[in-house]
Task: structure prediction
Amino acid sequence: MSGGMKQLDLRRFPGFFAITLACVAVLYAPLMVVAVYSVNESTSITRWGGFSLAWYADVFTGPESPKFQRAAMNSIIIAVLAGTGATIIATSAAVAMHRAGRFRAKTATFALINLPLMVPEVVTAVASLIFFTAIGFSGGIGTILLAHLTFCIPFAYLPIAARMQSISDSYEQAAMDLYATPREAFRLILLPLMRPGIFSGFLLAFIISLDDFLITNFVKGAGVETLPTAIFGAVKQGIKPNIMAISTLMLGVSVAFVTLSWLIGRSGQKTQ
Amino acid sequence: MAAMAPGGASGSDIYKGNAVKLLLPTWLVIGVFLLIPVMLMAVYSFLTKEFRGGVIWEFTLTAYDQFFLNRGLFGDDPASIEWTYIGIFWRSIWQAGLATILCLLIGFPTAWFIATRDARMRTVWLLIVTVPYWVNLLIRTVSMKFLIRDEGPLNAALMWSGIIDAPLGIINTNLAVQLGLFYSYLPFMVLPVYAAVERYDFSLSEAAADLYASRWTILRLVILPVVKPGIIAGCILVFVPSLGAFLAPDLLGGAKSFMIGSLIEEQFKGAAGNWPFGAASAMILMAIVMIVLLAYARSQTRETRT
Result:
């Protein structure tokens, strides 16, 4: 524009920056407060008694530590197994959806993959409990694992399918023109190209499994706890400082994972 | 970016004929462990209650009758409408709707602000907004409870600064649940709206400005209609999980802020539960969610057709 009139900056709206800051403040304030109080010396969770890592020591060596450690172990084992299983299933599904041409059940399959995202969590929880009870599976690691495997599939599928969308099949076609078998073309060409998507898919599934409380709480049965159900049980008795230390540790793990997934996503973009 | 093959990568048929083999695990796992369970739940909602929890295989409409109708203490009074459960559903819809509106009011300006930064700052801001989404929902809800308790830091700070002289008493109220829902699902609004604003073509705004439209007129008449699909997607992503939320009402609310999630959960806890009634409540919740999703799907197809 060459006019003498001062150009209106159409990207700016007064107040939007302030609202963004408020939004970030709302998102972080509760987490920050808990992180600050987790290093509070005092046994009272309301008064500030000076800096101390005592509650972190309590998490690892205190009277409740065996319970939380067993729960954390269960959570990690379930998240690794369910995440891996869901990633393998989702990878296979993504190859079929993007490399098998047109087939009859394609739309129905797409709906089925997304079903765990559409059914409200509490409904999935109830349905799983009823199903496992009806077929006589008693609650435990096994039922938790099967439930997690199921709801992790769409979360693993999303990044893998997004990645597939941008991989042209000309590389595989070229390999097959040079007498690679379809199996070799998959292993040597397609799989390496899919890798960043598969990594993000696994991380997403892993975090979603680790995050779940409601479905786990319904199907876990007596005696078996994951970290969220153990924390929920403890919180019901009142928030103690060791809960804040555990929360802060989990916050740290989540931040590490997001950063990792972000870095992998970025390296994936570069290699393309 | 790799060049797309003619016809697009999705149309490729290198593994044609292998679809069944590749999709069998997906069909089996989701089919057996979600689709069949949901169908079984539908059946259970028509069964008779067993007093120790569980069911007797006798078909009846008792669960739905109990949900909608009041037949008095002994079940022989003339039926009138039972408001207890409809009331809980109504409160849930209301709370989820309000959370959606609040998330939109805060989320839209935030998404707009982030999308109009340069590429580098955009990634930084996006990371800042997404990190809380990755933090365990239970941990976030507990953090909110800790912050707003009567003895918590929020009340302490307000009392110390002399703004109030007694705790606000937010905890265990509808307001606390609302705060929890808003806080839990805010990132779900920001991300899809951001994706829509990022694709927005600013020459539309320039054209409107050349025709003497004011900033707010442009927002109302040009920008909002263009980014509407992103806004609708964000609203659904907030509304649907808020409606069936369990943690926020359970940890932050009290007896008067009971929501659907807690109502259903209670029916499966111990001997006091009622499995058919819980299954029926879950069916009604799912019906509401499916109506919302179908309305969304229809608006999407209408959008693409025009």
Q: What stands out?
A: Chain B touches chain A through 99 residues (CB under 8 Å). Residues 1-9 of chain B have pLDDT under 50 and may be disordered. The beta strands of chain B are 48-49, 55-56, 69-70, 80-81.
